[in-house]
Design goal:
Distance between the termini: 25 Å
Strand order of the largest sheet: 4-3-2-1-5-6-7-8
Shape: globular
Structural class: alpha/beta
Number of strands: 14
Number of helices: 22
Helix content: 40-55%
Radius of gyration: 24 Å
Largest sheet: 8 strands, mixed
Length: 487
């Protein structure tokens, strides 16, 4: 039986800085775990580009079989050993900074000052207390010690045999030296390499991409055709875009489509406060769902709001959406919700930022949730009126499906992959037309009965889950003939 190597270079880079997990990383972990369950650890290995040694190495997958879920602590211990700060070693309220030393120590000193001053409100805002802070500084830590992993690292070129498969599910472009290494594995070892393509946005909408990323992405994608024997697309539209790219450069490769998920999954529940014990009545449910939330997040839900999730960049078309909201706010007799943007700042937002500064956030009609945790994001989905995603282009459109998983319809741009996610459960608009965006938003605001019709369709629809995505990958990777022909 052939051996499967799963590239985790993107996960190595991610857990070096971050403490949470995104959707595709969760998929990567689950695919590897289920491949181990199906084929055994002797036939499944993890591989990654070691930047320090400039070597492509493999490690055993045994530890994956012992993990219940993607755990940044364990992965940090595997890849970085004792150098990684574990959750147990992280001060209360500083979880998000634990892999960012400068920010961690800045906020550590800041919180120490608040503790000395007896400022309980500072800690309450982060669901902690001065007592918890003092216990941490006194060395009162959880009894369980993090396990240290010392796994043997072997050059993939020394292990791989002809016909073995290397699967790359993450984004690995612009990593110096990796392309040449993969080309060598294909040429010298006869390894079959499959790459998941998330989108072709850098070369389809280069006007929204900073620096020379578009040129770098084009070069990487063209280069990958030299060593990849097959590709996966994360949507029908992405697969179509990839096929058009191949036609342009005169290359043919099999492309299999595995659509991403619609369901939303809270992945940082380990760090969230536990609900109170007792029967889950309506009052207790309302109290429990606010646990682990910053006060500024709770404040957003005091009045009805429409939720926009994602990095705030020009491709998301947020300037036009804000313009539509400004028009809506001036209509007499229309009970307009606020517009809440949940995410982090992105590229080329000068027009949007100028509009916000010049109008004082449209007179308060627009508010922001900066970098919400998954728990906070789930709360915003649950309490919003509907969602909005009016991007010029998307590779999939996760926020659309995540909103659907909370029973919330949305205003969605009718382009790229987004109709694959929204189906007949959302109201569509033309991303290039302010009138169209305004009309779609107004329809959902002014006609609650129509919203209820769409919400009934959502309730009657079986939404695609991350389990579905994982099972599709595992089935395709275990069914070799499928990887040899184009869909």
């Amino acid at each position: 039986m052939k051996t499967h190597f799963f590239d985790v270079t993107d996960i190595v880079l991610y857990v070096e800085k971050e403490t949470s997990v995104s959707g595709i990383q969760r998929v990567s972990f689950e695919v590897i775990k289920r491949m181990v369950d199906r084929h055994g650890t002797q036939f499944v290995h993890l591989s990654y580009w070691d930047r320090a040694r400039r070597e492509y190495v493999a490690i055993p997958s045994d530890f994956i079989a012992e993990m219940d879920e993607f755990d940044p602590d364990i992965l940090s211990a595997v890849f970085f050993g004792k150098g990684a700060r574990t959750r147990q070693e992280t001060a209360p309220t500083l979880e998000r900074y634990r892999n960012r030393p400068m920010k961690y120590w800045f906020h550590y000193l800041r919180s120490s000052v608040h503790a000395l001053r007896g400022n309980e409100a500072h800690f309450n805002k982060h669901n902690s207390s001065i007592l918890e802070w003092r216990n941490f500084k006194a060395g009162v830590l959880p009894e369980t010690e993090p396990k240290i992993y010392d796994l043997e690292r072997t050059l993939v070129s020394k292990m791989a045999q002809k016909g073995d498969r290397l699967v790359v599910l993450g984004a690995t472009w612009a990593i110096d030296g990796l392309d040449a290494c993969l080309q060598g594995l294909a040429d010298n070892q006869g390894v079959e390499i499959s790459q998941l393509i998330h989108d072709l946005i850098p070369i389809i909408t280069p006007e929204h991409i900073a620096g020379d990323f578009s040129q770098e992405f084009y070069r990487w994608l063209k280069t990958s055709m030299g060593y990849c024997t097959s590709y996966f697309g994360n949507s029908k539209n992405t697969s179509k875009d990839l096929k058009a790219f191949m036609d342009e450069i005169g290359v043919e490769r099999p492309i299999l489509t595995v659509p991403l998920a619609q369901k939303f999954t809270v992945v940082d529940s380990k760090t969230a406060p536990k609900p109170m014990k007792g029967p889950a009545g309506p009052y207790k449910t309302r109290v429990d769902r606010t646990l682990g939330l910053r006060r500024e997040i709770l404040n957003l839900s005091k009045v009805p709001f429409v939720l926009v999730v994602g990095t705030m960049e020009s491709r998301k078309n947020i300037w036009r959406l804000a313009q539509a909201w400004q028009r809506l706010s001036r209509e007499e007799g229309l009970n307009v919700p606020k517009l809440v943007f949940a995410g982090k700042p992105g590229w080329y937002n000068d027009d949007f930022n100028q509009l916000m500064r010049g109008t004082d956030n449209l007179g308060g009609w627009v508010q922001f949730a900066d970098r919400p945790t998954d728990t906070e994001l789930g709360y915003l989905y649950e309490t919003c009126v509907f969602t909005a995603m009016v991007s010029f282009y998307e590779g999939w459109g996760l926020p659309i499906g995540e909103g659907l998983s909370f029973g919330k319809t949305g205003v969605v741009a009718d382009n790229s992959s987004m109709p694959e996610v929204g189906g007949d459960m959302v109201e569509y608009c033309d991303a290039h037309s302010l009138d169209s965006i305004h009309a779609a938003c107004r329809k959902l605001i002014a006609d609650p009965a129509y919203r209820e019709v769409l919400e009934a369709k959502i309730a009657a629809t079986k939404l695609r889950t991350w389990d579905d995505v994982t099972n599709d990958f595992v089935d395709l990777l275990s069914n070799e003939p499928l990887l040899e022909r184009e869909k």
